[in-house]
Amino acid sequence: MANPKLKSVTRPSQNSNVIARRKPAAVKTAYSLAEREEIFRRFSVQRPEPRGELEHTNPFTLVVAVALSAQATDVGVNKATRALFQIADTPEKMLDLGEERLRDHIRTIGLYRNKAKNVIALSQMLIDDFAGKVPETRDELVKLPGVGRKTANVVLSMAFGQATMAVDTHIFRIANRIKLAPGKTPDEVEARLMKVIPQHYLYHAHHWLILHGRYTCKARRPECERCVIADLCKSPEKSWDVPAPLVELPPQVIGEAVE
Ligand code: SF4
Fold first, then answer.
1. Cβ neighbours of residue 220 under 8 Å, at least 6 residues apart?
2. Are 101 and 127 in a shared domain?
3. Where does [4Fe-4S] cluster bind (predicted)?
């Protein structure tokens, strides 16, 4: 008589057959590869050289600016950092400035007390552990106080030219709204976008999506009549399906962003 305790055990050979038959996980997006190619081709015509709107002068000031930008607008951060970076554009100079005077510079930015603490602590860590230089790997960057995965991705992309996807509020909204890479968390959206965006568009995709979200596919009311992908878009919120003329946009004006 068979031992009932063994009934639920799957033999290794059966198990490996099941695994062999399992299809690879489908890439979760509402768009075919041809549609995704076309979406990013149009973004590339509109903004051939997209750039971030946070002002900075070197990798250190970029790390500081991105760390200060959490729950704040780029415009607000730029206003505060213009004077700050003239006197403190290295970790050493930031420590010389000190936490109290740093707080005075950034007090118009939300959560400034905590952010000032973090900037001083990250400056100290850069000197102690990284010879005063901003590290070039994500694992090292996220060790810095106040630097999370999103900040690290922005720094890797803007300072070191790596293709990354820093999922901010605009990217998270667009990925879900138009079903390009739906996900419940920023990490899920990041992983999906890295898979669904055609490789040759990946480097600039982060900025294209942010700028599309900031100026066209806005949070409260997407301006579909001004959208170059209105015919391709599969958002239930879409109010227009004729694409706007595909022309290169004037250079971005820093300070224009409102969201
Ligand atoms: S058509 Fe409307 S909803 Fe779709 S991407 Fe454009 S602005 Fe956003």
1. none
2. yes
3. 217, 224, 227, 233
Predicted model pTM? 0.80
Whole-angstrom distance, CA of residue 81 vs CA of residue 152: 19
Range of the domain at 200: 33-51+164-226
Ligand 1 atom index nearest CA of 241: 1
Q: Which residues contact 24 (CB under 8 A, 6 or more apart)?
A: none
116: closest CA among 131, 127, 105?
105
**Domains of the chain: total:** 2
Query: What residues line ligand 1, using a CB cutoff of 6 Å?
Result: 177-178, 216-217, 222-224, 227, 229-230, 233, 235, 237-238
Give residue-wise pLDDT tens across range 35-93: 999 999 999 999 998 988 899 999 999 999 999 998 899 999 999 999 999 999 999 99
- What whole-number distance in Å separates Cα of residue 60 and Cα of residue 165? 20
